[in-house]
């Protein structure tokens, strides 16, 4: 059985957020599909695995059915947390936003920013969730990338930064130009799944537009990041080695939001999106620490902090309880600090009760994997908890902590 001591820098806990119909489900499925294909092929060095996966995919669709699904992209572990997109589930959306470190906001290239995208965006603002945008449905009649970028600026009051320039649109959507690397990715319908584009030089007729779009990207980045601003003022062209970390810093700080595009439906643009997730969204190690308090301490200053480290005492937040047809009741947790071993006792600090953890599972789209332990920064499902509900903290009984609550702030009414 696998023990998990994940490298915290190589984990991404992400949500995919969107207006209904923008393509959240399709994008999520495509991500699981590509990551599944490359992971399987990478493991077995056998084209048959891809074929099996394709058949399986055609038969039932690779759908997210769990509150968190683990997948891999290159040597990164990506946990996709299901963020309900419906208005009536607002508190559930907020709860899921609390446990992820970054999000992909999906837009419809024709509709742009819709009222419900605004609402989810504001919730993400409230939790300061770093974001990248994916302008989906570039194949659709009426699709306009730039218009969508402008709407993100105007309607969402954000600073979008296009890191791609689409080559064509609608039925003529041929590929994208990566403005960071100044290369073109051209969709290749003939290619095997899992490698659905060719990297080529920028077509001549796009050379001017690409240079202009890159200048805009660098100007936006300079406004968002001091290091690039210094180079910009000196008149020095920043290198890729300077641009990539600067985009990452700006994304995490929310001073600029990278925008990519594609058509999930037609398998276009999903892989560059995954590259952007890994390159720009934060790792659990980038978060300084999670706040909480000692439930027994009555004093005024009773605040406690747990750092994202395996060396710290164990603490985790329960964010979803689901019933699995095979396993029964599964409790989904985000581990913030320390290590949790299967079969050990933990404290539910809010209720002041001890509970025993049964088995620990990592949920993949097509299988579940039992693991012996789970460490800081990771998201898993555990069995055996009888008296714990969402929003509660599980922690090391010797080091009690109640993690900051996720309830809405109570307004203070002043009586004159
Ligand atoms: P969700 O409600 O955000 O989860 O959206 P879905 O993924 O269910 O997609 C909504 C509709 O848009 C479905 O009919 C999809 O087939 C369609 N769709 C998704 N992605 C694309 C795309 O890239 N291009 C086009 N033309 N349609 C798409």
UniProtKB/TrEMBL annotation:
<feature type="binding site">
    <location>
        <begin position="18"/>
        <end position="25"/>
    </location>
    <ligand>
        <name>GTP</name>
    </ligand>
</feature>
<keyword id="KW-0251">Elongation factor</keyword>
<protein>
    <recommendedName>
        <fullName>Elongation factor G</fullName>
    </recommendedName>
</protein>
<keyword id="KW-0963">Cytoplasm</keyword>
<feature type="region of interest" description="Disordered">
    <location>
        <begin position="288"/>
        <end position="310"/>
    </location>
</feature>
<feature type="binding site">
    <location>
        <begin position="82"/>
        <end position="86"/>
    </location>
    <ligand>
        <name>GTP</name>
    </ligand>
</feature>
<keyword id="KW-0648">Protein biosynthesis</keyword>
<comment type="similarity">
    <text>Belongs to the TRAFAC class translation factor GTPase superfamily. Classic translation factor GTPase family. EF-G/EF-2 subfamily.</text>
</comment>
<keyword id="KW-0547">Nucleotide-binding</keyword>
<feature type="binding site">
    <location>
        <begin position="136"/>
        <end position="139"/>
    </location>
    <ligand>
        <name>GTP</name>
    </ligand>
</feature>
<feature type="compositionally biased region" description="Basic and acidic residues">
    <location>
        <begin position="293"/>
        <end position="310"/>
    </location>
</feature>
<keyword id="KW-0342">GTP-binding</keyword>
<dbReference type="GO" id="GO:0003746">
    <property type="term" value="F:translation elongation factor activity"/>
</dbReference>
<comment type="function">
    <text>Catalyzes the GTP-dependent ribosomal translocation step during translation elongation. During this step, the ribosome changes from the pre-translocational (PRE) to the post-translocational (POST) state as the newly formed A-site-bound peptidyl-tRNA and P-site-bound deacylated tRNA move to the P and E sites, respectively. Catalyzes the coordinated movement of the two tRNA molecules, the mRNA and conformational changes in the ribosome.</text>
</comment>
<feature type="domain" description="Tr-type G">
    <location>
        <begin position="9"/>
        <end position="285"/>
    </location>
</feature>
